[in-house]
Amino acid sequence: MKTVRIALAAAALLLGAHGAQAETLKVGVSAGPYAEVIEFAGKIYKEKEGIDVKVIEFSDYTLPNAALAQGDIDLNNFQHKPYLDNQVKNRGFDLVAVEKSIIVPLGLYSKKIATLSQVKDGSLVAIPNDPSNGSRALLLLQQAGLIKVDPAKGIAASVADIVDNPRKLKFREIDAAQLPRSLEDTDFSAVTLNYAVSGGLDPKKALLLEDINTPWNLWFVTQGARKADSKILKFIAIYRSPEVKAFIAKRFDGTIIPTW
Predict the structure, then answer these.
(1) Which of 28, 34, 38 is closest to 69 using CA atoms?
(2) Are 98 and 221 in contact (CB under 8 A)?
(3) PANTHER family under this entry (predicted)?
(4) Are residues 151 and 203 in the same domain?
(5) Are residues 100 and 112 located together in one domain of the fold?
(6) Taking Cα atoms as reference points, which of 166, 159, 192, 167 lies closest to residue 78?
């Protein structure tokens, strides 16, 4: 079991250097808790199938789909379906969602207030600048009762689709990886759990977290031509096993939610 962490500038070089390896399954993830779950499942997979699992961890979550499309990895597990759909539409990737994995809740975090009741008029809020996670953040803010978005937009809502903003919140859209740092300059921010954890934030202290009813669960994704690949399907089946579910419950204490 090996995790390779790849920074943005060196991604293509390092992936090319590893090359294709027989009897190795390469799984791409973004920074955060994903790798730890994949590694645990990978140990079981190795015992049962005799195939090593190598986790490739990317520092920028625009990279795992490009690496998958190029064949540098076998599958990835870091994205929800709206993000994948957006990538396929805008970048022309032949990628398909194979099976659900976990819910990694987006949350509202602050270093200035402890509860949503303390939100002041004119507060500055940071949200992810990619369309799918930006919409996700707006819907969580709507769940919190802070704004209302155009219901016709659904999971494609943007800041321009806010139809009611009684607190006159101000929005700053920034790269998702920078959201934990934004808390020094904002009143609160919407941060995905992977970046919250890597940024030293405690999900248990979030102002609000998505729950099991969120549509933003993660998916295992692979190339269209490999959606029935037995090597991939067997790994996913092991990942979605009672053993891995128990590991997630014990290791992450409810902050990550299995979908099975």
Answers:
(1) 28
(2) yes
(3) D-METHIONINE-BINDING LIPOPROTEIN METQ, D-METHIONINE-BINDING LIPOPROTEIN METQ-RELATED
(4) yes
(5) no
(6) 192
Distances (CA, A) of 60 to 75, 130, 242: 16, 12, 31
Residues 189 and 247 placed together within one structural domain of the fold: no
Q: What is the pTM of this model?
A: 0.78
Domain total of the chain: 2
pLDDT in tens, 193-222: 888 988 999 999 999 999 888 888 999 999
- Residue 71 shares a structural domain with residue 82: yes
96 shares a domain with 221: yes
pLDDT digits (tens, 9 = 90+) for 95-126: 999 999 999 899 999 999 999 999 999 999 99
| CA–CA gap between residue 172 and residue 182 (Å, rounded) | 9
